[in-house]
Specification:
The protein has 412 residues and is an alpha+beta fold. The protein is 58% helix and 17% strand. It has 15 helices and 9 strands. It has a 6-stranded mixed β-barrel with strand order 2-3-7-4-6-5, surrounded by 4 helices. 39% of the residues are buried. This is Lipoprotein-releasing system transmembrane subunit, LolC/LolE family.
Length: 412
């Protein structure tokens, strides 16, 4: 193997004198490097989206939620006790979910109101991560307070301390229509998650929601936070089998699961593209090595005459062609990992410089391109690049190993 590597390096150095072969060789190395870098960046972005979904978006969206079929839950405290007894449940908390409309002079805006218990909500929600401690305390101490998303507050030009009128539609009773309930609230705080929930959601106190919804019980839903968000369907069924409430069962895979499926679909496509792009980039190695074999026929004849076995010739050309893949995979993977780590900062600078947004917050669950470099992806891309490079050398190297001294000299 040492002799084959020595001969391969000698062939590589002598080949550099031929500009045409050097250009093709450099193109194959550059192609493999760029393919590795681009694929690592794309996979890192997909990892970033999945991490943002798990840690940010799903911290604001119920992992599992039980909603009363009509009116309120008869015993939400009992439901909380049963749920928290399950090993997969981290915590549970009551809420009232209401569809509402914010009215400002000349403007109306629909939103989802969540009436919460301020002492229990932080156990099941990441809301306190996106609001200052001072604003959260002010909201907790203001019975008629409302916690607005930043996007919604900016759209309605509302600030902390302002009064806001909220219209809540009422359920129909028999053939009679009930007039919408109008309540006046004070903006006690503003949360900023950085996604579409900033434009769609607001929080009020549980007692305020109970009066606005005109329900007899204290809560209409119970929200669960899970240790593993991907266990949501199973945990939802297990807990539902242990409660006596008639309730609709919601879990995030049914309400927001399309986001996760989209991310996984794109990731799968990226893995397919990985193999195809690297395979195309490796074709240059095949063409380069075929021309090198033709150029080195005299050298092959001399080596065979001196007693070199076909296996030595095969190893020599496999190693020579693989050097392009090694160089391209190493530097491409290194460059891809560095650029993937810097990508969020680079895109943020680009958005600020050119005054545009790649992901408008009102349309997407996050407002910036995330990136999470995973070592397994770097090793996978580099490994596939090396594997395709070695496979690309096998046919030209096999042709070289088949040459006899007479055939090689006749070819000259």
């Amino acid at each position: 193997m040492n002799l084959a590597l020595l001969i391969a390096r000698r062939f590589r150095k002598s080949r550099e004198k031929t500009r045409y072969l050097s250009f093709i060789s450099a193109s194959s190395t550059l192609g493999i490097g760029l393919a590795c870098a681009i694929l690592i960046i794309l996979l890192s972005v997909m990892n970033g989206f999945q991490k943002a979904l798990e840690t940010d978006f799903l911290s604001m969206v119920p992992h599992v939620e039980y909603q009363a079929v009509e009116g309120g839950l008869q015993d939400w405290r009992g439901l909380v006790r049963v749920a928290e007894a399950h090993e997969g449940v981290k915590a549970a908390a009551p809420a009232i979910r209401l569809s509402a409309m914010v009215q400002q002079p000349g403007r109306f805006r629909g939103l989802e109101l969540r009436a919460i218990e301020t002492e229990l909500e932080p156990k099941v929600s990441g809301i306190t991560r996106y609001v200052s401690a001072e604003d959260w305390q002010d909201f907790a101490n203001t019975p008629d307070g409302i916690l607005l998303g930043q996007g919604l507050a900016e759209a309605l030009q509302l600030y902390i301390g302002d009064s806001v009128s909220v219209i809540i539609p009422q359920l129909q009773q028999g053939n009679a229509l009930r007039a919408p309930q109008r309540i006046n609230l004070q903006v006690a705080g503003i949360f900023a998650m950085g996604g579409e929930l900033d434009f769609q959601q607001a929080y009020i106190h549980l007692a305020t929601g109970q009066a606005a919804a005109r329900i007899d019980t204290e809560a209409s839903t119970v929200r669960l936070a899970l240790h593993n968000v991907y266990d949501a369907p199973e945990v939802a069924r297990d807990v539902a089998g242990s409660i006596r409430e008639y309730a609709y069962i919601h879990d995030w895979t049914r309400t927001e699961g399309h986001l996760y499926r989209d991310i996984q679909l794109v990731r799968t496509i990226m893995y397919l593209v990985l193999v195809l792009v690297l395979a195309v980039a490796s074709f240059n190695i095949v063409s380069t090595l075929i021309m090198v074999v033709r150029e080195k026929q005299a050298s092959i004849a001399i080596l065979r005459t001196m007693g070199a076995a076909p296996s030595l010739i095969l190893k020599t050309f496999v190693l020579q062609g693989s050097l392009n893949g090694v160089v391209g995979a190493f530097f491409g993977s290194l460059m891809g990992a560095i650029l993937a780590a810097l990508l969020p900062s680079l895109l943020l600078w680009l958005e600020q410089t050119l005054s545009f947004s790649l992901l408008p917050a009102e349309l997407y669950f996050i407002s910036s391109i995330p990136s999470d470099v995973a070592l397994r992806d770097v090793l996978l891309v580099g490994g596939v690049a090396l594997a395709t490079s070695v496979l690309a050398t096998l046919y030209p190297a096999w042709q070289a190993a088949k040459l006899t001294p007479v055939q090689a000299l006749r070819g000259q």
